[in-house]
Amino acid sequence: MSVFNWYNASIKQKIGGLFVFLLTFLFCVIVFSAYKVNQIEREMRVVAFLDIPLSQLMQQVEFIELEQHLQFEQFQLKNKIDDKPLNPHQQFAFEKQKIKQLLDKAVAMINHSLALKEVILQPEAHQKVATTIENYTQKSDEFENYLENVYQQNQLTEQARLQVETMATELESAEKQIIAQLNKLTSDDAYYTDQHEKDFLFVSSLLGICAIILGLLLTTFIIQIILRRIQRIQSNIETLNSSVEHHELPLELQKKIKTKDELAALEHDIKIVISRLNQEMTSREEIEKQLIILATQDRLTGVFNRHKWEEQIENQINMAARSEYLFALIILDIDHFKQVNDQYGHQIGDKLLKHLATQLQQQIHAMDMLFRIGGEEFAIISPIQDKQQAHQLAERLRVYISELDEVSLPKVTASFGVTCYQADDSSSVIFNRADKALYEAKAQGRNCIVVA
User: CA distances (Å), 158 to each of 76, 109, 140, 161, in order?
Assistant: First the structure.
């Protein structure tokens, strides 16, 4: 499993991967420890079963050489063959045989260990010691033969004595060299073994510390991943909750969810919920807008309807009552509209009303509001300060309607009733006053304006 796949894996797989990693690391530490312990054990066996016994053998050789030296001194003092059962030469030969046996045993031990590859540390040095011992044995045999010849002559000349002393000195020097080499081997082996033990303890401690640090780092890393994911989920839930409380559209999660763990499934579910909520809130807003349009706009003409009229006239009255705000109310009625329906049909009449409403909406100011309050009756609320301005607006609209010429629609005129807000007016009072002025305009012959 690659690092990327492990990062995107489930929580169970993350923890399992961490567990497998730590077990693998621990297994490597155990294997390394077993290998080093086995190596140290083999080195200790070399020291215990080869180097130390060799040193002991050479100590025996050294002791026997000392006895030989005494025998040789006795041989020099007598300078003749005694009649004793065991003369000095015989004693020397006997001691020499013991030395030969010990040295042969030492060489056999070294060669046997080298053949079995039991010597781990300094095998070349051990081979060199074996060669040195073999050379020593050869020199010892030569010395013994020479000494035997001297003994058989039954007279020790000065030259022979010097030769014997020289050969004895060489043997003693070779012996000391062998003992020194063995001591150095034993000392070096002990040093290397001790050093390996220290290295083993150091590396084992270092590996243990590394395992603890890696375990802590990986555990912390996994915990941080989980915490970040939980915080992100919590943030999404808070966003969702805030959107529901404030009736706002929630922001959809744009970031692609790449992981496949349990938290990713939860994030995916939250994303689906947010997406559905977003769609439903958008749909609800559209429905609310449609409902508002249906509730406030006239279905035929598209201007405000009677319901919106009642709401706005009350608002205007309340605003005027609380402040110095003034407004004008203009009511207009299409003249002889019933005749239009009778002559051209209701379909043409509806088209005429729709066309007139569109044109009137374009002629009034942005602050003015146009309402259809009856069949062919419209009302305009305008924030005009006096009756003169209201009359000018009504006159402009009257002239525009009378001059309106649409090929597919009949020409019509309109009558206007105009009034302005007065103190203590209510919605019904101001409406009745404007409506009464409208009927007076119709009574005066239509296509005119009456201001009340």
Answer: 11, 41, 21, 5
User: Which residue, chain included where needed, has tokens 């007065």?
Assistant: 422
Q: Which CATH architecture is the domain 299-451 placed in?
A: 2-Layer Sandwich (3.30)
pLDDT tens-digit series, residues 47-103: 666 666 766 776 777 677 666 666 666 655 555 444 444 455 566 666 667 777 777
What is the distance of C-alpha 27 from the center of its chain? 27
- What's the sign of the alpha-carbon dihedral 108, 111, 115, 121? positive
Q: How far apart are CA 98 and CA 68, in angstroms?
A: 11
How far apart are alpha carbons 139 and 271 in whole angstroms? 97
Q: Residue 304's closest CA among 360, 262, 351?
A: 360
Give 436's contacts (C-beta < 8 A, 6+ positions apart): 417, 452
What residue ranges do the domains of the chain occupy?
3-219, 299-451
Here the tokens at position 276 are: 């559905």
* 404 DSSP 8-state letter: -
**pTM for the structure as a whole:** 0.47
pLDDT of residue 84: 44
Percent of the chain with pLDDT over 90: 29
Burial 426-452 (b: 16+ CB within 10 A, else e): ebeebbebbbebbebbbeeeebbbbbb
Query: What are the backbone dihedrals phi and psi of residue 300, each rounded to the nearest 5 degrees, phi first?
Result: -80, -50
pLDDT 10s digits, 294-313: 778 998 999 999 999 999 99
- The torsion defined by the Cα of 201, 204, 208 and 210, in degrees rounded to 10, comes to 110
Cα(378)–Cα(337) distance, rounded to whole angstroms? 13
b/e burial code for range 259-288 (CB count within 10 A of at least 16 → b): bebebbebbeebbeebeebbeebeeeeeee
**Beta-bridge partner residues of 227:** none
**Closest residue by Cα to residue 18 from 264, 222, 262, 316:** 222
Element (H, E) at 329: strand 328-334
Q: Is residue 122 classed as helix, strand or coil in its secondary structure? A: coil
Taking residue 157's Cβ as centre, other Cβ atoms within 10 Å add up to 11
φ, ψ dihedrals at 379, nearest 5° = -130, 145
Task: Give CA–CA dist 223/45, Å, rounded.
Answer: 50
Identify the helix (H) or strand (E) that includes residue 437. helix 427-443
- Nearest to 419, CA basis, from 365, 447, 381: 381
Q: What are phi and psi of 424, to 5 degrees?
A: 65, 15
How far is residue 269's CA from residue 263's CA, in Å, rounded to a whole number?
Answer: 10
